[in-house]
Specification:
The chain is an alpha/beta fold. Helix content is about 45%, strand content about 15%. The protein is built from 17 helices and twelve strands. The strands form two sheets. It has a nine-stranded mixed beta sheet, with helices on both faces.
Length: about 375
Amino acid sequence: MTDQLLYKIGITLIPGVGDVMGKKLVAYCGGPEAVFREKKKQLEKIPGIGSATVQGVLKQNVLSRAEDEMAFIEKKEIQPLFYLDKAYPKRLQHCADSPMMLYYKGNADLNPQRVIGIVGTRNASEYGRQWCERFVEELQHDNVLIVSGLAYGIDSHAHRASVINRIPTVGVLAHGLDRIYPYTNKGLSEKMLLNGGLLTEFMSGTIPDRENFPRRNRIVAGMVDALIVVESAKKGGALITADIANSYNRDVFAVPGRVGDAFSEGCNYLIRTNRAALLENTINLRYMLGWNTVQQSGAQTKLFRDFSEDEQKILDTFGAEKECGVDDIMLRSSFPASKLAGILLTLEFDGVLTALPGKKYRIA
């Protein structure tokens, strides 16, 4: 445990400081510790900061609670993840309202090549349970991480099927890691730790209050490449997660249900209003996400011409990754959308980049 961790946790405890303001504080001050070392006059210059927030930073009375959490983390062998850490989920990292701090217990890689979210009603029907279990089983050779919310119903079935088929699975919690809710999933959660994990933004002692579940849902939506809604009523957590996923430009899929079934209304509504693509099986998923594309092992991009400065800047945004979303390219290159679209189109025509579903590009 480092002194920096004390300040990283401390920022999340300052009254009136949410994830957006917390990141702004770190950016303006130059680091977590620097936030608590900054002078009052300098803090007051930060756009959007109020006097109450300034006083909260200066009092520093949150650091004792942060020390207690550090002791809990060390005792329970929990991995703290700050939003700037390398191990922090990169897909989530680019969401403006992503948590500043995550607490993770497990061994699954949170940044694999493929991440799928599966969510649905707590009142899963036999049809929904069977579809979910069969779908997950068919993904066992796709090198995918499955994320859900460890709730009753579809979430639990997705996690359980993952465990049975030895697919890494991560449950995102709406409370601290000192408990499991619902308690009936305690045994399942212990099995998930062997090939997966449990993830939360909430500190120990946090109970599963109602307002925590939408916050949990945004983490599920932000962590994935695609979100699948198996069954849902017209109102519920699964539809909230789908709306958030759409706002993050994630691919959203819904499993169609029989007309008139209460817990198919949500899925049918998503499909009917073009908020989700219809999904029948894993064949659909692989096709729409471009997983069927044959890639030659060890292939390298062939450079047929010299690249302009702007083109090279875009190619550099991929780093070691072969695939990158348009939003990430825009963020890393700082190009406006209109300019970026033209350069991407040219690179695609020249065979340098390949367009993929879900507003993504891959280096050819």
